[in-house]
Amino acid sequence: MPWVALLLAGLLEVLWAYSMKKSQGFTLPGPSLVTLVTMIASFALLAWAMRSLPLGTAYAIWTGIGATGSFALGILVLGEPASPARLAAIGLIVGGIVLLRLAG
């Protein structure tokens, strides 16, 4: 169950990063509220998962899911560039996440 909580925490991290972008520096109330609520939920799930998962593994996977998901969302929804160097960098992050999971 901690791995499911960690996955949900990572997905919520993607959502709060996106809503933070949409909040225009916390000047729009709707996206700002979504950012704050999803941040709290993401941190709470991460904290719960860390009760039984190693700190380094949990935190690295949480940030990796957030980084990878935000990267994909930026390309697919916000029209950010998908250069070969950026794709290689995200590939290294995904590889690190998989290796951490296999090592744990």
TrEMBL record:
It is a multi-pass membrane protein. One of its GO terms (biological process) is xenobiotic detoxification by transmembrane export across the plasma membrane. Keywords: Cell membrane, Membrane, Transmembrane, Transmembrane helix, Transport. This is Guanidinium exporter. The keyword Transmembrane applies. Belongs to the drug/metabolite transporter (DMT) superfamily. Small multidrug resistance (SMR) (TC 2.A.7.1) family. Gdx/SugE subfamily. InterPro entries: EmrE-like (IPR037185), Small_drug/metabolite_transptr (IPR000390), Small_multidrug_res (IPR045324). Gene3D superfamilies: 1.10.3730.20. It comes from Vannielia litorea. GO terms for cellular component: plasma membrane. Pfam families: Multi_Drug_Res. The chain crosses the membrane at residues 33-50, 57-79, 85-103. GO terms for molecular function: transmembrane transporter activity. It is found in: Cell membrane.
